[in-house]
Amino acid sequence: MSNFKLADLGEGRFALSGEMGFRSADQILRASEALFDEHTRIEVDLQGVDKTDSAGLALLLEWITWANHTVREIRFLNTPDKITAIARTTEVDGLLKRGERWSGFIEAPNDEDD
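That's the STAS domain-containing protein sequence above. Prediction below.
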């Protein structure tokens, strides 16, 4: 039985509720893969998260990494205070606040004649 719910609110907006921690982070990540895949802009509301820990922060960072590698924008709303505190302590709080599009680095083809 799942101890979380990842609801699709439409147009790239999602709401996560319940537990976001060691017991559920992997399940949430797997559930999000198909849901997020069809969107270039993703917004995740975390207001309903009632239990979290450092694995919850790791999940958010994994989503950010995925967005970076797949040229997407992701942002989080209502991040739980506990996640913000852990992020600040580990000096990754700036990553959670970004709402910009991560474009990564794409190399142009080399036209040199060798």
